[in-house]
Amino acid sequence: MSTLTFRDFTFRASHHLPMRFGAAACPHWHTYTVRLWFSGAPDQDGLSDSLAVRFKHLHGCLLNSIVHPESTDEALAEWFLANLAENKCVRVTVTNDGQRGAEATL
User: Fold this and answer.
1) 70 pLDDT exceeds 90?
2) Can you give the pTM of this predicted structure?
3) CATH no., domain 5-105
4) Is the pLDDT reported for residue 10 higher than 80?
5) Is the dihedral of CA 43, 49, 55, 60 positive or negative?
6) What angle do CA 33, 36, 95 make, to 5 degrees?
7) How far from 103 is each of 50, 60, 78, 95, CA to CA, in Å?
8) With b meaning 16 or more CB within 10 Å and e meaning fewer, what string describes 17-52?
9) SS3 per residue for the chain
10) pLDDT classification of 45: cutoffs 50, 70, 90
């Protein structure tokens, strides 16, 4: 049996998708909830504190300056997974405005 623990992280950021047409190509805002799944049962209190500090720069940011080349839900999920690999993060789910999203797994 394998057990995973998770932590949700919510932030609001702007982005645009320059390779798309219409509204998506123009700067706009979303509220993102990122569910981070961990193996190895990390200490939840320590994990919460470290994630809040590590990702505080995402609140109110322009995602295009952080996630390249496009700041899609898929790219954001992959970015979080890559940035937390050393913390035994094995799956990331990104929900965009509570309506849609993407998931990345190892």
Assistant:
1) no
2) 0.91
3) 3.30.479.10
4) yes
5) positive
6) 25
7) 22, 22, 8, 9
8) beeeeeeeeeeeebebebbbbbeeebeeeebeeebe
9) CCCCEEEEEEEEEEECCCCCCHHHHCCEEEEEEEEEEECCCCCHHHHHHHHHHHCHHHCCCEHHHCCCCCCCHHHHHHHHHHHCHHHCEEEEEEEECCCEEEEEEC
10) confident
* 41, pLDDT greater than 80: no
pLDDT at residue 84 is higher than 90: yes
CA dist 44 → 4, 79, 89 (Å): 12, 22, 13
- Residue 36 main-chain phi, psi, to 5 deg: -105, 120
Q: Sheet harboring 5-15: ordered strands across?
A: 5-15, 28-38, 89-96, 100-105
- Domain range list for the chain: 5-105
